Amino acid sequence: MNPIQEHRQLLTRRTFLGRSGTGLGLAALSGLLGRAESTPAPTTPTTGAPPRLPGLPHHAPRAKHVIYLFQNGAPTHVDLFDYKPRLQELHGKPVPEGYLGGKRFSTMTGKADGKLLLAPIEPFHRRGQSGAWVSELMPHTAGIADDLCFVKGLHTGSVNHAPGISMLLSGAEIPGRPTLGAWLTYGLGSECENLPAFVVMTSVSKGTSCGQIFYDFYWGSGFLPSRYQGVKFRGGGEPVLYLGDPAGIDRATRRAMLDDLAELNSIKLREHGDPEIATRISQYEMAFRMQASVPELADISGEPKSVLDLYGPSVREQGTFAYNCLMARRLIERGVRTVQVMHAGWDQHNSLTTELYTQCRDTDQPSAGLVADLKQRGLLDETLVVWGGEFGRTPFIQGNLDDRKRWGRDHHPYAFTSWMAGGGVKAGLTYGETDDLGMNVVKDPVHVHDLQATILHLMGVDHERLTYRFQGRDFRLTDIHGEVLKGVIAS
User: Fold this and answer.
1) Cα torsion for 355, 361, 363, 368, to the nearest 10°?
2) CA 319 – CA 236 distance, rounded (Å)
3) Planar angle of CA 83, 87, 88, nearest 5 degrees
4) Beta strands in 147-290 (DSSP E)
5) What does the CA dihedral 202, 105, 450, 119 come to, rounded to 10 degrees?
6) What is the pLDDT of residues 154-191, one digit of tens each?
7) Phi, psi values for residue 219, rounded to 5°
8) Residue 237 region by backbone torsions, left for phi larger than 0, else alpha for psi between -120 and 50, else beta
9) DSSP labels, 286-330
10) For 137-250, where are the alpha helices, taking DSSP H only?
11) Rounded CA gap, 437 and 334, in Å?
């Protein structure tokens, strides 16, 4: 899309002539159009739901919704899903020469030469008919192994958390680019007029000492208009502030106030063409509708006990990962396109034998329960569920091998594992392979841009064609990279 052309279409003949009748008018118009290069013209502002772009989807979508179960802090692939018997054999021995090859690790590790290898802290077993390797730390995920597609060849260039998360969610380490959910909302619009198209929920395990900060740019719209950014639901109290009208204001009065306000804002929109005015109009409208839709969404009293039991004992506690997973299912049932469920605490530099157990306990059953719940409702085929973090953890130890309570693993961008379910991916597949220590990818490498391209493809979007012109350049989620992983897509 070209925002300059869109802006010109917004100008009426009378406005154009009025502004271009003098030299000053021409200069003003030139300046206005120049500024408009960095922003698109507003879409129809009378509804809270963004429309889709013309020509999208580019092809028949396999999925209508994405639920991203993002594990902030980087889960340890070699302890959860990427079984390496040789790690057990070489436990306590230095990393063999040839595996490190000038690799860059975090400043906590520095030079990795001489680091001691650390075996998985719990046993692995083959699971289901697919025979996927899953640790005993994840018994519920093991129970749905045949529904999952494990992607074991992931790698990235980011060695620290915030840049790594930004890279995975927005395609760039530096904040300021639109995130996955913002791109999907911009391109595909919304199927729901009563809830945002892109919703974010966050959680942290109780008592954790290694939680990550949730920065707003993890769900930001970047240089897209702000109507496309994610709407964060709170973990306590009302999910969204100010759901109730002030005392003495009934719904009819509020409706009339918003109609008058929208009319005034529309006048300014026609005069200035600022897309943020359109955003303001649409967000006022969405807020009005959410006053009715959010309380109904958050009321889980009608959920059967059998369903609640799928998600685990903390599902009734607002703000937990289990509760957020249930909310994710309820959101996509109501037409929300992208739900980003983020859980922090996986950064086990010195707490692998303590807090990793907590993280798995708090996230394993809800993640598996969500997949099972979607499947039994017939929603899994149209919903892509993605589980994973920003990178993996080192096969070698961080800390003293003789002090088991303080074992840890450092950041590892060269190989890590995610899994996907539903939404047109092959079930019961393990895609990609690392070496015998889980250090490097040796088969079917998957850069994070490839993962992004594949998610967009499953949603009916060609990642090379969904672009936005900003500062003289056409940007896209995958930057100038990315290949669709055809090997993970079901026929």
Assistant:
1) 150
2) 6
3) 95
4) 148-155, 198-204, 231-233
5) -80
6) 999 999 999 999 999 999 999 999 999 999 999 999 98
7) -130, 25
8) left
9) HHHHHHHHHHHHH--TTS-HHHHHHH-GGGGSTTSHHHHHHHHHH
10) 139-143, 161-170, 180-188
11) 44
pTM score over 0.70:
yes
Q: How far is the C-alpha of 347 from the C-alpha of 208, rounded, in Å?
A: 10
Q: Distance between CA atoms of 154 and 229, rounded to whole angstroms?
A: 26
What is the 8-class DSSP label of residue 396? B
pLDDT above 80 for 10: no
The pairs formed by 135-141 with CB atoms below 8 angstroms and a separation of 24 or more are 135/79, 135/80, 135/81, 135/83, 137/79, 137/80, 137/356, 137/357, 137/360, 137/364, 138/80, 138/81, 138/360, 138/364, 139/364, 140/364, 140/365, 140/367, 140/368, 140/369, 141/364, 141/367, 141/368, 141/419
Supply the pLDDT for residue 217: 97
Q: Nearest to residue 228, comparing CAs of 180, 290, 176? A: 180
CA distance 343 to 366: 12
> Hey, what are 334's tokens?
């109501």
Report the pLDDT value the prediction gives residue 207, as an integer from 0 to 100.
Answer: 82
Give dist(CA 456, CA 57) in Å, integer: 10
Name the E strands within 301-445: 338-344, 383-388, 392-393, 411-412, 416-421, 429-431, 433-434, 441-443
CA distance readout (Å), 462 to 2, 336, 393, 457, 458: 17, 21, 32, 6, 9
Residue 70 host element (H or E): strand 65-72
| Torsion sign, CA atoms 366, 84, 453, 228 | positive
Angle between helices 321-333 and 275-298 (to 10 degrees): 110
The Cα–Cα gap between 408 and 79 comes to 11
Inform me whether the pLDDT recorded for 115 exceeds 50: yes
Are the C-beta atoms of 348 and 76 separated by less than 8 Å? yes
Q: How many CB atoms lie within 10 A of CB 100?
A: 18
CATH number assigned to the domain covering 49-247+300-488: 3.40.720
- Identify the three-state secondary structure at position 380: helix
Domain boundaries, the chain: 49-247+300-488
Q: What is the pLDDT of residue 396?
A: 97
Q: At residue 264, does pLDDT exceed 70?
A: yes
For 239-254, give one letter per residue: b (16+ CB within 10 A) or e: bbeebeeeeeeeeeee
The separation between the first and the last C-alpha atoms of the chain, rounded to the nearest angstrom, is 31
